[in-house]
Amino acid sequence: MSETRLTPEIDLDGISPDEAFAILGNEIRLDIIRVLLSAGATHQYDDVSDTAETIPFSELRSRVDIDDNGQFNYHLSQLTPHFVRGTDDGYRLSGAGKQIARTVLAVSGAETVDFTTDLQQSCPLCDAPMKAAYEDQWLRISCTRCDGLFGDKAPDESVFWSNYPAAGLADRTPEEAFETGFYRCMLDISSLMRDVCRECAGTISASVSVCERHDPGARQQCAACGTLFPVWAELQCDTCGYAKRLPIEAFTLGLTPVIGFLDDHGMDILAPAFDDVVDLFRHRVETTVREEPLRVSVTIEGDSSALSVSLDDDMNVVDLDQHPSE
Ligand SMILES: [Zn+2]
Ligand SMILES: [Zn+2]
Ligand SMILES: [Zn+2]
């Protein structure tokens, strides 16, 4: 394809993660990346344009504000070609350089962003007030009275918790940040179930743990495992270690047939109302476990039909069955 942007004239031998950390572990080099981004010296639209702005060497040097020419040249050469590209016209960020710059933007806040605040939304389980807390790039929604949906497996009575970039707090109320965090979480789940890490596009490994003596009882919290859910799965990126550990039911919600089934029942599961998902988990989802080989079957009830998804211990879908409701 003619639009494919390849730069075969550049030696693009990969660099190891250790090398990348070493290259970036320097204030002047990060400043070069910052200056190139703020000068727009990069592909503006990564996918639709093959033209990129550059800035001349002399301008780059004066904006980075370093007197020692030799030092500047040395640090610039360390960034090239993996993070910065040099052309006849000047310098620009590579795709990797732009991603580094974006990550810095995502995790930066204008000032200290950690907070705890009351939410207007009340707990879907017990109707008590809920709180939103933001700390260490994590958004945590917790109930002031009950243990939340996940029982002992969630820290600090959390109803919901997820990594959330500080930049996503700007121009949003705590309620909107909760909604946005939940949306991002559903996209993460969907991507993980397709064997793709949303952080780095790496492949995913899965493991499953089953409560052997599961009995949630009337309190909806099993004495043996401390939660309502009998099977938990952990999906983790093989490359960067990004992971989610959730009830297996939550992971099934990211599968295309389940997304379609719920859409037919008026529920947009990729951008759902939180209360609706809690209601779904508590009243419309049933999970059964069969051993040797392990098969976990999650059945989601609709109005007149139900959808059953059967998964193995690697979280592969081994069976899918839509049938009339009982
Ligand atoms: Zn509660
Ligand atoms: Zn249990
Ligand atoms: Zn990853």
Give the helix/strand layout.
Elements: H1 17-24, H2 27-38, H3 57-64, H4 69-79, E1 84-86, E2 91-93, H5 95-107, E3 115-122, E4 129-135, E5 138-143, E6 158-163, H6 174-193, E7 204-210, E8 231-237, E9 243-247, H7 248-252, H8 256-264, H9 274-284, E10 285-290, E11 295-301, E12 305-311, E13 317-324
The chain binds zinc ion (3 copies).
The site of one zinc ion has 7 residues, from loops.
Give a structural overview.
By secondary structure, this protein is an alpha+beta fold. It has two domains: 17-107, Winged helix-like DNA-binding domain superfamily/Winged helix DNA-binding domain (Arc Repressor Mutant, subunit A, Orthogonal Bundle); 115-324, no CATH class. Helices cover 30% and strands 25% of the residues. The chain contains nine helices and 13 strands. The chain has helices at 17-24, 27-38, 57-64, 69-79, 95-107, 174-193, 248-252, 256-264, 274-284, and strands at residues 84-86, 91-93, 115-122, 129-135, 138-143, 158-163, 204-210, 231-237, 243-247, 285-290, 295-301, 305-311, 317-324. The chain has a four-stranded antiparallel β-sheet with strand order 3-4-5-6, covered by helices on one side. A four-stranded antiparallel β-sheet has the order 10-11-12-13. Strands 7-8-9 form a three-stranded antiparallel β-sheet. A hairpin with a 5-residue loop joins strand 12 (305-311) and strand 13. The longest helix has 20 residues, at 174-193. Bound molecules: zinc ion (3 copies). One zinc ion binds next to loops.
